[in-house]
Amino acid sequence: MILSEQKPMEEILELLKNEKNIFIIGCDGCAEVCKTGGEEACSKLKSELEKAGKKIAGCINVDFLCNKVLDRLRINRNMDVIKDADSILVLSCGIGVQAVGAVIEKAVRPANNSVFVGGFQGLWPSEERCEECGQCYLGMTSGICPITACTKGLLNGPCGGALNGMCEVDKEKECGWHNIYERLNKLGKLGDMDRFVEARDYKKMMPGKKVRNSKFYNIEVEEEETVNE
Amino acid sequence: MSKLSEALKNKKFAVTSEVGPPKGMNIDTCIEDAELIKDLVTAINVTDNQSAVMRISSTAICHKLVEKGMEPVFQMVCRDRNRIALQSDMLGAWLLGIENVLCLTGDHNSLGDHPGSRPVFDLDSVQLIKAISDLNGGHDMVGNELEGSPDFFHGAVVTPESDPVEPQIIKMKKKIDAGAKFFQTQAVYSPEVFEKFMNKVQKFNVPVMVGIVVLKSAGMAKFMNANVAGVNVPEAIVKEMADTPKEDRAKKSVEISARIIRRVKSMCQGAHIMPLGWDKHVPAILEQAEL
User: Fold this and answer.
1) Nearest-10 crossing angle of helices B235-242, B249-264
2) CB contact under 8 A, B174 and A159
């Protein structure tokens, strides 16, 4: 279980600032439970975006966005609409956003911040990684996480260490920023790399009060209580 | 105002070189290396735990150079200190008479001699440059006012022979916007590639000093080509070194470095020579480069 919170509306609109025609994909897994990804959250965000003057090309929900096979299937089925969209707004945790980015050559924008992994332990669905930084950066890179894909977690572009697209730390590990550059170049969104990104706020990694009070945060405690009863 | 900032501001062709702090308390060789070149260069870079190998701090060696009347360029990497320590050490450096800073990301810990250490990278190089601009402006990076501020001349690095070079240029622009006042480049061996790079960045109007890494052997060239990012020694130069008998190699190496500087000096505003221990050959390089 990855707990997520929706980004403030101003931040979502800033991410979509140069985009008019938006396709929405919501996750019916963890994000639905957090009310940040299910149909209810999607339709609420859809109407807010329409109010802000955006055109919503379409809106689908996928059971578990971290499942790329499923994503590919659902995206292909809606390709005739998606292909004309300027970007895809993804309502899920950071892994779902990266998974969507990995299966389609389209700019992806996160609607949520991932803040905490709770519930299941020992689960890692795929090669996409999310550190639950609480300040999702996937919007500026169109779906590749600079914190987990870059060994140094750099936010403002590549270091000088990559050789032939591979990381200085491990010749078999791809350089995250090389991939980000290649992806943005392909999408015609290189301008997204120009913005100065402020230093991270590590406080955001601490789950907020709302999350701490949710039953999923306390799931182990509750389970123990149930057993004791 | 530092001599380096003055020289670059007055559009003079400036030369810098570098020394690496030793591992341990015996700093004689390091200081001797600096003294060998001090009258030929405007400033001397002091590396910061280069290659992620633990050594005496750059700050301490910089201070020693200041005491001896030399002007250091304090190299600062983001690998080992969080934002509090970076800013604090910067203020401390100014107190010790250090005026020039070069901001770098830093090689990853796993490449050095403490591979299990915790990588910090709390700030990246662009954010570090911004933080120093903030200190110069009289406040720290979160906006708290300083009682007395420094006035650093801070610069950054760029890799002209990186392929593709565009991400480097995008980041270079961000560094300039964050306040970088000069650039020293990664090693350049192909004047043609450097010229293309300079044509793309000329518009930024920020002084660029070409990086020259003094080649010691054909083996070193091959090693760098295979392992060092953005370094590309052309086959012709590798062959030139390989065909030179061992006793003439230093002479050949001097000739190659000087030749590159002569070819590119009209395109840029200075040269940064990295002798990697061959400091005694720097005078000959500068002489043959007609500087």
Assistant:
1) 150
2) no
